[in-house]
Amino acid sequence: MITPARLGSAVLAGLLLAGTAAPALAESASAAPSSPAATPSTAPSAAGSTAPGPAGTPAPAAVPAGLYGKGDPGYDGVWRQSLALTALKQNEVVPAESAVGWLLGQQCADGGWPSFRADTATACDPKTEDSNATAVAVQALVALGGHAEPVAKAVQWFKANQNTDGTWSYNPGSPGDADSTALAVSALLAAGADPAGVARDGHSAYDGLAGFQLGCASPADQRGAFAYQPVAGSPLTANVLASSQAALAAAGGHLPVTADSRADAPAKPLACADGAAAGTVARADSASAAAAYLTAKLAAGGQRLLLDTPGATPGPDFNATSWAVLSLVQAGHAKEAASAADWLAGNGYAWAAQGKNGTDPAAAATLLLVARATKLDPYNFGGTNMVQLLIDAGPKPASVPAAAAAKAANEPDATKAPGSGITEPDENGGFSAGWMIGVGLLVGVGGGLLLSLNRRRTTRNGAK
């Protein structure tokens, strides 16, 4: 089968043969994105593939057998492993026992997970246990099935490490943040524990999450968003990654997103009367308000969210955009999510496959989750076989579905075919309808010129 990327190459070759120039792409997919791959939060220790710091910081950890990816796992080992296992399971790939065993072996005696545990024979330091890693590990084990005991221990860990305001922090003992609280809520939902009943000092997990959402006292264009963390003496400020991850929890979702609900109407922004008093957003309105904010933000950014982390290089936030798509689908707004999913299909290859260590399994898994949630082809996501790309980043799976085996055999180069540099909002696969029409016109013009020149040569030759 000819993939969109291969079709594009053929069209460009035709243009060159016709003597016409190819149009410049507005955005290069081969440019390395500036955001860390699938970073769970803005905490420094969650910086994905970030290189070690100055002298005195730990040396890069060796990549153990069974782990997905080739990069230093010290910051994101459990995170990327959990996302990879979740995404592969959703696509009917049975992972290797070593991959599942590695994740189980990372769990601490009290039920939590650290970001990475180099020596499993040494007891965990509770202060270094990571709520984000624990949350995605729980969701992965629930998706895999058959791991009730470690999941139950993790639920108890969440209960023991909940802050008095109902929130969770990245590491225990710190003030809560929206990303960590949202991921914890999603983990509880996956495990079958009602977040409304998980409380500390009378504040439930939902109460904790609500404390980060911007309500009627905020500027109209930020209402429904979530702040990463309150700053004393300052109003809450919207954060796109926090909003994207918190929206999934507010909509009652967890990974993998498999919701088939479809809302008949667009997401409703908060209904705020003039002079509305400050207050938390009601739980009944939370998911819709967050979805309305994300939909507007995506539209304003050309169907992708933009990095808003202080000090970050301006550009697309692939991670936040992916979580926004998952959240919108979970909330029943798949139509609003479709254009952003198409943008990711056309532009996400560099983020997933062209990092300094090759394929980033967390990014590849996130895009694979997006493909399945939005009912796009995971074997041809912007021209890339995302299933095989993720399989190739880890240990050989125990089994793969027939479809995956057939695709790998028939199109062995599909994982190396990048998506296009730009995708229009209503197109999947990397080449917009407008672009293709333009190509057709150029090919037609080139062909017409060649035909005209040939006729002139024929006329001249006949006149001699």
List keywords for this structure.
Glycosyltransferase; 2 domains; disordered N terminus; 2 strands; single chain; two-stranded antiparallel sheet; about 475 residues; mainly alpha
Short description:
With 464 residues, the chain is mainly alpha-helical. It contains 16 helices and 2 strands.
Characterise the protein shown here.
- The structure is a single chain.
- With 464 residues, the chain is an all-alpha fold.
- The chain has two domains: 66-431, Glycosyltransferase, CATH 1.50.10; 432-464.
- The chain has helices at 4-18, 77-90, 97-105, 131-144, 148-160, 178-191, 205-210, 240-250, 283-300, 318-330, 334-347, 349-353, 361-373, 386-391, 402-410, 433-463; strands at 199-200, 203-204.
- It has a two-stranded antiparallel sheet.
- Helix 2 packs parallel to helix 13, helix 8 (240-250) packs parallel to helix 10 (318-330) and helix 10 (318-330) runs antiparallel to helix 11.
- The longest helix is centred in the last third of the chain and has 31 residues, at 433-463.
